[in-house]
Amino acid sequence: MSATAGVRYSDYSDVGGRARPRLSLVWRPADRHIPKAQYAEGFRSPTFFELYGTGSRNESLDSEVNRTSELNDVGRRPRLSARVTPFRSEIADMIYPIPGTGAFGNSRSGRSEGVELEWTQEITPGSRPSQTPCGPTRGRTGAGRSRFTRTSPRRTGSATWAQLSWAR
């Protein structure tokens, strides 16, 4: 088992500094089976326009914060690699425009969750599968659900998505 922990610190002259953690655990019971768990946080600082859109600094506007966790299971066989990744991301303090004011606020939140399925297949003996979509054959599919809300119950929304792509 191996663990990786890290912290990223960013400092902006107009909105201050923030530290965000990252942690991953990898267990390798065999070369053919590798489960992983990851957690990370990130943020998006307000843009200049979002901070000063009304002509003066919006002192109440803060950065968006993203928290993501995922589990990952990699299976390997000769000439084949497959990965299953359930994930969940939450965004707090989403920055959004306040209609009719030119100002921005932070009272929205969002969530995205789903599962990604990925595989790499070597078609001809001796060729190496590529880690990019330009490899011999690479497929990726996923499904998920997103939900975005704000503190007012008037506006909520959701989206369900599915994706399948091939490269040869």
Summarize this, please?
With 168 residues, the protein is mainly β. The protein is 3% helix and 65% strand. The two termini are 35 Å apart.
Highlighted features:
single chain, 168 residues, mainly beta, eight-stranded antiparallel sheet, 3% helix, elongated, disordered C terminus
Please tell me about this protein's structure.
Helices cover about 5% and strands about 65% of the residues. It is elongated, with a radius of gyration of 21 Å. The chain contains 1 helix and 8 strands; from the N terminus they run βββαβββββ. It is mainly beta. It starts with a strand and ends with a strand. The protein has one helix spanning about 50; strands at about 1-10, 15-25, 35-45, 65-75, 80-95, 105-120, 140-150, 155-165. The protein has one domain (about 1-165). It has an 8-stranded antiparallel beta sheet with strand order 1-2-3-4-5-6-7-8, with no helix packed on it.
